[in-house]
């Protein structure tokens, strides 16, 4: 599990640190941490529906913010819980671009006991850095 929850960072919210050997691995770990925050057993979310996401931003941390916000939007607007399936992040003159394939299913309250309702990703303490060869992120969620 390439993430851990940070109980002392935000008292009324949920915070986690996630990491990966690549930017894509770190983004995937953040998506899995978000799903784990919302659902008691993320492994019960079947991989039956696919969504594609394309985002861009001049800053990598804000790209992560937008990516996680998109996952919250899918949960709220489409009642869809998703796992990251394939991610690609490229860096160009204007910043970063993300292409992601997400896979999951509609919320089924009988099979997906929900833990908390994540309302949004916050900018509070949002951080992305490469530390000793690994990508690491800190994220605080408004619940």
Structure description:
The protein is α+β, with helices and mostly antiparallel strands and 143 residues long. It is 24% helix and 42% strand. The protein is built from 2 helices and 8 strands. The strands form 2 sheets. Strands 1, 2, 6, 7 and 8 form a 5-stranded antiparallel beta sheet that branches. Strands 3-5-4 form a 3-stranded antiparallel beta sheet. Strand 4 (80-92) and strand 5 (95-106) form a beta hairpin. Helix 1 runs parallel beside helix 2 (60-78). The longest helix is centred in the middle third of the chain and has 19 residues, at 60-78. The protein is globular and about 45 Å long. The two termini are 22 Å apart.
Throw out a few tags for this protein.
143 residues; 5-stranded antiparallel sheet; alpha+beta; 3-stranded antiparallel sheet; globular; 2 helices
Give a summary of the structure in a few sentences.
The protein is an alpha+beta fold and 143 residues long. It has helices spanning 23-38, 60-78; strands spanning 3-5, 14-20, 49-57, 80-92, 95-106, 120-121, 127-131, 134-142.
Secondary-structure map with pairings?
Blueprint: E1 3-5, E2 14-20, H1 23-38, E3 49-57, H2 60-78, E4 80-92, E5 95-106, E6 120-121, E7 127-131, E8 134-142
Antiparallel strand pairs: 1-2, 2-8, 3-5, 4-5, 6-8, 7-8
Helix pairs in contact: 1-2
Q: What composes the largest sheet? A: 5 strands, antiparallel
Summing up helix and strand content along with how strands pair, one would put the structural category as alpha+beta
Q: Oligomeric state of the chains?
A: single chain
Unreliable spans: none
Helix-strand string = EEHEHEEEEE
Please work out how many helical segments DSSP would assign.
2
Distance between the termini: 22 Å
